[in-house]
Amino acid sequence: MMFTMRRINCLFFGLYGILLIVQQSYADVLKSVTIEESLAAGLKVSNPIAASQQAFVVARQAVAAAKAANELNGNFALSGSNAQSDSKSTAGGFVGSTGLTATFSLSKRIYDSGESKTKFEVAEFDLEKARNEYLLAEQNVIFDVISAHLDVLSAQKAFDIRDANERRLFAHTEAARIRLAAGTSTPTRLAEAEARLARAQSDKILAKSGLQSAVEAYESLTGFDTVKPLSFSLPQGLPENTADAEMKAGKSHPSVIIADLAAKSSGLQFKLLKQSVSPKVNFSLSASRTEKEGRSSDKDEITTKLELSTPFLVTETTRTSSRSRQASHLKAQLDASERRRVVELEARRAFREYEASVAQIQAVESELRAAKLVAEGTESEVEFGLKTLLDLLDAEHDLSNAEL
Question: What are the start-end ranges of the E strands in 11-117?
């Protein structure tokens, strides 16, 4: 009987080893992907980043347009006419006349009270905002890809643990069934083993579902298929304390910079309104030539004009626009202050979570080492009859939980 049980146990563990070899062979087929490769792929296929790039192009063209606001403009116009006049002294009753006029003109605003300069400053602020909006989109994509990469790693590890636990409990259940048939165990022991196996099977199903969801999220962000993400270490240059984290976030976080730039841009809108109703000086030069039937009707003209214009009535539209821009500027300032507060608060919270995670990992590693020693010791005590199989199952269950 003892020999038969040993052969059965060897058979179970042999099958278990074959399953591990098959799984390892399948894993070797998958392409191993580093975090750098995941990030490169995620940044390449990201729609938010592509949209931010186009927004940056738009802002850059707006700067060029603002810089050329008062450039020299030239126009050429050509017109023709054909007139029929009623005449009693002409046979047929009508006299026809044709004419051709060509006009060439140049115009330029030579003084605009600084309006074009202010528009250029606003455009530069908007360009810097677009640049930081791109950085913010890039930061969000990097965070999402890293999270997805880590989710696949942890989900795969959780599935492996659940899978190994399910196979281990299956072997224990079969062994309990054989011992019951041999009369060396009780139905209660078999029922307990079957209950643990059912729970392990349920946990494995949930772990498999979680792994599939993590893989799909990762593939949607990177465009990769049938790959195996590799583990990676923490980056260098992390903040040293909460004050350092708060200072760096408040100074360099893209969303804070965007809010500050929006406040500066809105601060120029009132100045821009004032300049738009200030005096303007325009200069124009035009030359025209008109040709009609009969040399006496032909003429050439050259005209130069220096024009000064300024509104002298303050309308309700101007007053309303002034109040609106002042309110918008105050809102932008408050938004910038609130954004800085939120970012600094999040930086402090994130750093505390980071420190807590490091300490938790160290504690769990100690727990894992202790659980391994307990499981090994319990296995030895079961062989010598000092403890029961249920004690061993409990110890292995604690080890599995510590690994998770």
Answer: 31-33, 73-86, 94-111
Please tell me the total number of residues recorded for the chain in this structure.
404
- Tokens representing residue 38 in the block: 């995941």
The more confident residue out of 66 and 96 is 66
- C-alpha pair distances (Å), 126 with each of 93, 131, 265, 371: 68, 9, 7, 58
Contact between 80 and 98 (Cβ < 8 Å): yes
H or E element in which residue 79 lies: strand 73-86
Which residues lie below 8 Å from residue 19, measured CB to CB, with a gap of 6+? Answer: 167
Structure tokens that stand for 158 in this block: 């959780």
3-state secondary structure of 200: helix
The residue assigned the tokens 């903040």 is 239
Long-range Cβ pairs for the range 199-206 (8 Å, 24+): 200/162, 200/165, 200/166, 200/169, 201/166, 203/162, 203/165, 203/166, 204/159, 204/162, 204/163, 204/165, 204/166, 206/162
Give the separation between CA 380 and CA 390, rounded to whole angstroms: 14
Residue 116 has which token pair?
């074009």
Q: Which of 26-30, 162-166, 187-191, 248-252 has the lowest mean pLDDT?
A: 26-30
In the block, residue with structure tokens 């000092």: 386
Mean pLDDT of 308-335: 90
Query: Mean pLDDT for the chain?
Result: 85
Instruction: Dig out the tokens for 230 from the structure.
Output: 């590799």
Residue whose token pair is 């908007």: 126
CA gap 196, 198 in Å, rounded: 5
Query: Do 283 and 305 touch, CB atoms closer than 8 A?
Result: yes
